[in-house]
């Protein structure tokens, strides 16, 4: 049995812990029903409103801290937040729950004045609360923090103001929200206050702390103990001599560095656009799934889609480190459906081109194109940009060679015949040419005899007989290995015999309608175990797993290859890329 205070009392409740707010909600609902109007005189209502505002404050600071396109240059600690830390912070709101429950008990007592007895605004209370914060909260926090690492000082200014008869409703809201804002600013890992402000008014540095100031406390443990005011560290002799110099360096972009590798992604759809660290970091740390909590935010996400369509440019989404190399994910501000609008094609290519040129100017070594960013009909699998800019130093990679390798290595060695849809695409062509060399019969579904013959003639003469054109799904009724590069409807899937396994390289993946068949996932690989700072999942992928085209760019970077990988796949390089991926510790997912 653990110690009584080793965990929160409601730890075993999981998500049901929010039922602890039930009595407050019930009291408000009961008063509303009796009076027929919102009970503005009820402390329970104000506690719930304050809870909502505090939660919004924390969420906005979480979002701001993870908006790398705004904060990248001013991040205090350059390391990323990994899954382990995110899991440890999952119940960040336990303290808020505790404070709300304690406040409910206190405000429900006879000693606490009713809301109706209070002024909406009383400057005396604000002045007294400020005085008590400086004279009581700050020194109490400093000494308890220095000795015991406890936080007991938040309520002192409020309690003092109310005991003096100068409390007000605005003081409750203002003090609590300002307190939360300052705490969040310190833990945001972003330098919010410019060093120029301290240079212009030196006393300010003793009145308010910064994220850099707090980071030194967590790093060195024996300095910078204050709540918000470094004045008490200065008086107590615990102010780190590095505080202001490091703050200036961080504010000037000391921790900003050029990535070695960039994965250029795009948004899939409106709902999944919320699966980013700067929306909900906890949700982005799990594979994408439809979560009911996100549905009310759909209108907000839709509005952001419109804004991005007209005003946005490629932005940084996330990052991680691998063997000392910085890997970033950038996103083109376009959604999946927009790639199929003919009039949008030119604008999308311009966004991709600008991202490539930006990466080239920065000194990025490899940029890998994701999903529709390398669509053959859009830009020839990246050839458009390489041909237009022949002197690029950054290597442009579509990553499809490793995608093909992953799919091919999933096929059991006993298979002697496969049915291939999307057969004349870049991937389909490479898969057919690779398998025919293994003397595996490939049924290529295509209505274009011209395109089929072009691919068949690429195979060595002795293997051309293994590539067969079919024009209907019925031709695969006896084949139990389907490689799907084109979306299949339920009607088309019914032609597969029982026991069929569907391998996939189609986006979005097909829906598994057949219970007597099995369905593979999109080609993916697990990153090496020594990856650092990885804290978000790539769409539907599991933790630590990335799409094969992403992994292909990683391998290209780790190997230091100097060629572009664009356009048609080189069949002879499929095994080379696969072996290189395994050598560097990437594994099939």
What features would you describe in this structure?
The chain has helices at about 20-35, 45-65, 70, 85-90, 95-105, 125-150, 155-165, 170-185, 195-200, 210-220, 230-235, 245-250, 280-285, 300-310, 345-360, 375-380, 385-390, 400-410, 425-435, 450-460, 490-495, 550-560, 575-585; strands spanning about 260-265, 315-320, 325-335, 365-370, 395, 415-420, 440-445, 465-470, 480-485, 500-505, 520, 525, 530, 545, 585-589. It has about 600 residues and is of the alpha/beta class. Among the domains are: about 195-250, no CATH class; about 260-385, no CATH class; about 405-520, Rossmann fold (3-Layer(aba) Sandwich). Helix 18 (about 400-410) packs across helix 22 (about 550-560). The longest helix is centred in the N-terminal third of the chain and has 26 residues, at about 125-150. InterPro entries: CER1-like_C (IPR021940), NAD(P)-bd_dom_sf (IPR036291), Sterol_Desaturase_Related (IPR050307). This is Very-long-chain aldehyde decarbonylase CER1-like C-terminal domain-containing protein. It is a multi-pass membrane protein.
